[in-house]
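Subgroup meeting minutes
Present: P.N., E.W., G.H.
Scribe: E.W.

1. P.N. recapped why we're keeping a running log of single-chain structure predictions: easier to compare across weeks, and new members can see raw inputs and outputs side by side.
2. G.H. added today's entry (291 aa).
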Amino acid sequence: MILMSALQTLSELLTTISSVWRRSLRVVADGHPSLQLRVHLTAPHARAKTREGIRSLGIVSALVANYRKKLNRNSYGQLYESRPYLEAYAAHTDHRVLKDAHAAVGGKWDALGRLQFDYLVANGLKPDSKLLDLGCGTLRGGRHFIRYLNTRNYTGTDISWRAIDYAHHLVMEENLAAKEPSLIYRRPGDAFFADLEDACFDFVLAHSVFTHLPPEFVEECFAAVGRVMRPSGMLFFTFQHEAEHRRRDLKDFAYPSRLFADLADRYDFLFETRNDYNHPRGQTMALLRHR
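Output recorded in log:
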């Protein structure tokens, strides 16, 4: 309905504009919501009319774009209704990586990638540290860690095979292959850390991971992560803080800090929230370590 109305409005608009142009009008549509106009004008009143027309075309383009977004939301909604959550989330991410590998992991590619790197270095990460980047995505932060860490000291895992595929491509593109990072695709539903050695990592990072996990998978991670952390190891993770747990959207979850504190007690960890991480979208940084 919205699309038909937009097309009707566009047709009426073009008829009106053509009546006042003295020379020519060409409208080029390239299959995207935006339309390009090329006009030749010879009178001030025609230029004014054209400005009005371009503003109207902007409105029509916005209507079409919103219609397409609504279709995407509906199709994604059907995806989450028809598949187990992790499978749906992985497929959703695969699709987003195809569209834009940087935006697929939350955008702010340069700023957030550097932010997480600087934070771990400030909290003790050294070149000889071993790091597990849980939910590494398309290496927004990973590329900085790989460059900094000694050879074979970076491991990244993700449940999106397209994200891991892009990560391999990025390693080659940024001349990081000599660092021999381990990039692991974990199929949705596989156990956390199933293919990793015991007591291997000094640092585990879960940046914007629990923001996309329901509670049962957060607990699964807490239950298993101690196995891969060295006795002095630390898990840093971000979460969206709210007074009560709730699902905010198809793939966005908010949690009270007490939920993580309770899980920490259950699995024999020390837990603390940090106030020194300036995430641009307001996520809270937290630390988990062995008692």
